Amino acid sequence: MAKRRVSKKANSAQQASLPKPISVVMVSAECAPAAKVGGLADVVHGLSRELQVQGNPVEIILPKYDCMRYDRISELTKSLSGLMVPFYNQRIECDIYSGLVDGLDCFFIDPHSQQNFFNRRVIYGHNDDNDRFAFFSRAALEFMHKAGKGPDIIHCHDWTTGLVPVLLFELYKSSSMAHSRVCYTLHNVGHQGLTNANILRQVGLDTASLIRPDRLEDNHHRGSVNVMKGGIVFSNFITTVSPHYAHEIKTSNQGMGLQHTLAAHHNKFGGVLNGIDYGVWNPETDRHIACNYSVHTLNDKYKNKEALRERLLLKHDFKPLVAVVSRLDHQKGVDLIAHAISYCLHRGCQFVLLGSSPNAQIEARFRHLKRTLNDNPDCHLEIGYDEDLSHLIYAGADMIVIPSVYEPCGLTQLISMKYGTVPVVRSTGGLADTVFDANYSDKPEQERNGYVFNNYNSQGLESALGRAIEAWYAQPDFFRSLIINGMNRDYSWKESVNHYLNIYKFIKAS
Ligand code: ADP
After folding, report:
1. Mean pLDDT of 104-112
2. What one-character DSSP code corresponds to residue 168?
3. Phi and psi, residue 370, nearest 5°
4. How many CB atoms lie within 10 A of CB 315?
5. How many whole angstroms from 271 Cα to the centroid of ligand 1?
6. 39 in ligand 1 pocket by Cβ < 6 Å?
7. Residue in 330, 351, 332, 333 with CA at minimum distance from that of residue 342
């Protein structure tokens, strides 16, 4: 008996010292691996997983797209039918499905609308994207209201959910969410949801009081609505995905028109570096690669290089293998990516590109390039989206090139480093926060992990890529030390989640 009492006491003391869990509902257009276009999906997944691991209940609300990876969703069941969501002068009936994505509780909104909002075979890229995601924002709140949800925090992401805090403040103040606070994360201010007043009417908001310079009116287009600006103004805290990008978008035209708004709201704005989920991205356990390895068994990495060459029919040769894994978009520096291909082939490297593009012109350009290089045994361009192949590329390549025009955080350099692949990057946004030049960084030697250039032009790229190639050939021990430095650095979600938890606690108490 006595023993039992003691352990009970100890248990309650232990519980008292544990931080109180914070309940979070994420509202997002993407969540890996079920609905992924880019880094947003990885972030929503990785952040939610780590919050959950640390004892905080998390739920995620997503649209129910026809193009989701249904094989990555388990226990998918209809959990609510007949949810009537006001939209314009009608109500659209929705079914809500629940399911698990990698152990995370997700809800999927399935509207029975004439517009067929989420059955379009792609996640983005339609003329009515503004309407589709405005509807999604209203439906997410209507669902939470009807389900009686009142999380401590509603965390929404990017322009697609920018109306959530506006709707919450204007229409759902006296609902179950009366005490919920909103954290809004900007993953990329290159897409802001610029549209007209109709969007507000559609979701039941008042245009006269909201289309004002200090609210949702776009800073450059008078009379137009900027959805992301609405999210910034109405949320309790705004984050972006790296400290450097936070500075850039608040103080320069990298803010793409929102710099004045962010400066005005600087008291509730900060940069939190993204992490990566080592449950997904870990060469020691990755099931998509040919041979698992760690920093202690680095030679096994080269079995993946051989496997990659075999898979893509590249020659086996004593050459460094340079890679790009990217959306092919102006933001990612497509001109310099194309230049890197010819430069690397000219400098005695092999080159592998995995890229997809929603832009038909850019895609045509790379398809043409692929045709001209078709017979080259040192080069393979894979135009498309292929999650499995991306893992083998990270494991098999020696270097990865990321010459972005701008880069809010960038995950590909973080993943590459974990896989011992040395990043060659332009110094912008999160790339500047995470990659430190082998020769010129002011960081101590054990923190130097890649090659960096500043100017967005071919000379800039060559200045960094040339040094990387030279080091691979002439200074293998030095090159190996960069690999090891990158692998040893912890870019998991652990630390970043603590920053988010502090923000959540701060706004919860305010
Ligand atoms: P962004 O979100 O701007 O596209 P990030 O670097 O933040 O860029 O995240 C990119 C994510 O998408 C990474 O997980 C990367 O591996 C993945 N990715 C990008 N392009 C492809 C592709 N063509 N096939 C598979 N995965 C890709």
Report:
1. 98
2. H
3. -60, -45
4. 11
5. 20
6. yes
7. 351
Can you tell me which residue has the tokens 């974990």? Answer: 418
pLDDT at 1 over 50: no
Q: What string of DSSP letters covers 174-222?
A: TSTTTT-EEEEEES-TT---EE-THHHHHTT--HHHHSSTTTTB-SSST
Does ligand 1 come within 6 angstroms of the Cβ of 42?
A: yes
Tokens (6 digits) for 188: 């990329």
Taking CA atoms only, the protein residue closest to ligand 1 atom 18 is 326
CA distance 45 to 414: 16
Mutate to test the pocket of ligand 1, among 245, 278, 325 (most ligand atoms within 8 A of CB): 325
Ligand 1 geometric centre to CA of 71 (Å): 20
Q: Are 405 and 428 in contact (CB under 8 A)?
A: yes
Cα-based angle 451, 457, 460 (whole degrees, multiple of 5):
30
Half-sphere exposure of 447 (CA within 13 A, CB side): 10
- What is the structure's pLDDT at 5? 45
Length of the chain: 510
Q: Distance between CA 436 and CA 445 in Å, rounded?
A: 10
Nearest C-alpha to atom 22 of ligand 1 is from which residue?
A: 385
Report whether 397 contacts 412 (CB < 8 A).
no
Sheet holding 90-101, edge to edge: 73-87, 90-101, 104-111, 58-63, 24-27, 153-157, 181-186, 237-240, 269-271
Confidence of residue 113 (pLDDT cuts 50, 70, 90): confident
* Planar angle of CA 508, 258, 262, nearest 5 degrees: 35
Mean pLDDT throughout 410-429? 98
Cα(412) to centroid of ligand 1, in Å? 7
- Digit-coded pLDDT (tens) for 359-378: 999 999 999 999 999 999 99
Question: Quick check: CB of 52 below 6 Å from ligand 1?
Answer: no
Atom of ligand 1 minimally distant from the CA of 407 = 3
Mean pLDDT value of segment 294-310: 98
Both tokens of residue 414? 């973080």
Q: Cα(378) to centroid of ligand 1, in Å?
A: 23
| pLDDT tens digits along 430-473 | 999 999 999 999 999 999 999 999 999 999 999 999 999 999 99
Ligand 1 atom at minimum distance from 387 CA = 25
Which two structure tokens, joined as six digits, stand for 365? 């350009």
**Structure-block tokens of residue 372:** 């001209």
Residue 429's CB is within 10 A of a number of other CB atoms, namely 29
- Residues 39-90 have pLDDT tens digits of 999 999 999 999 999 999 999 999 999 999 999 999 999 999 999 999 998 9
Asked if 264 and 254 touch (Cβ cutoff 8 Å), the reply is no
Run of H or E residues at 166 = helix 163-171
Ligand 1 atom with least separation from CA of 332: 3
- pLDDT digit string (tens) for 489-499? 999 999 899 99
